[in-house]
Amino acid sequence: MASIEFRPRSTRVIAYVNKDKQLFPLGRVTKKTAERFANNIDTLLHERRCNLPLSREVSNWLADLDETLYELLSDRGLVEARVTAGTLATFIDDYIAGRSDVSQRRLGKFQNAKARAVEFFGDVKLDAVNPGLADEYARWLLTKVAPTTAQKECQITAQFFRHAFRKELIERNPFDGVTIGHSTNDDRRVFVTRAVIEKVLDKCPNWQWRTVVALARYGGLRCSSEIALLKWTDIHWDLERFTVTSPKTKRYGKGARVVPIFPELRRYLDEAYSSAADGETWVVPMLGGNAEKNLGTTLRKIISRAGVKAWPKPFQNCRSSRQTELEQQYPTYVVCAWLGNTPTVAHKHYLTVTDEHFQAAAQTGDSRGMQTPVLSRTDSQQKGGTIYSVRENASFSEVVALLENNRVAVEGFEPPTRGL
After folding, report:
1. Which domains are delineated in the chain?
2. Does this model's pTM top 0.70?
């Protein structure tokens, strides 16, 4: 057992580590502090000898030790050396350098989040950021950027600190539970009609730009990453489909997907093929496989020349408009397989209620706003009888009232009773 030696100007604990006498000078401390140190040393030595995990009491005691006493234990091989947290900017730089699994565009978002985090917190030690400061940072973001951008950047900053926590550089993630802004902005979601996009296509300066716009609106491809990487070897004319390389979904194990050559898209691919130079690799040569090229500025100029009202996020809304169209004809899982997203993402960020939905709903209802009668007669006949269908959610009293005015015993409405 560890013993305590009290001296006029210092107190020290004496313990035997692997039969070697070790001295732990504590300086001027109270008797209670010295006894706690000695008891925890005994517990620590016992847990090490028995290869047991550290108890909560010992773990909390080690966490509270100052650097000098902790280094004494570390130098004697009783605990692992503490890893210093480092500064915020240095840690984030190292984190970004290690993220070779994400696209350059995503790395750019990491850099933007880092710049704003350092602007607010300063280049401080990681463990200097507490939950209160994290809350203040989230509110500060709302004064700098749009709510959706604030929400995304707050998520990225939380990701930085979560990584630091998992590396045991900090004791907790100060961003746990911090939420701000909105993940979606419905005011910036617009359905781009075919009439509008045809006007834009007419004003495109050349066949390459027509191919870009058609692939975004009628193919549902991401621009510019997926369009830029599309090669002529990816077009399977005989199967009427093409393969899309997707950098965004590659890290999720879905680096490519197959999309139909839709009739609306076919004529633009035909034009591109007939206009391409012999031996050309890329479907859109002006992009040259550069998945990071920004085409938004030029597209906005083309939209202006077309004389139509500009819409926000021009390429994103072309893609979401295509998903909304396809959802009217095909199951969600099929459309999501073609566009390379998930049903959750589609419902949250892509699908849009259009004017056509309102018009169709208004035309199918009667004067009382009821879309179908409670009990309707169909044209189908079975054994000479009439088949009826009851509208969904009809009340029992409505059904009874209608049945009283109909001949229930007509053969075909229900099976005939034997003997009648």
Report:
1. 3-75 (no CATH), 88-183 (1.10.150.130), 189-355 (1.10.443.10), 373-420 (no CATH)
2. no
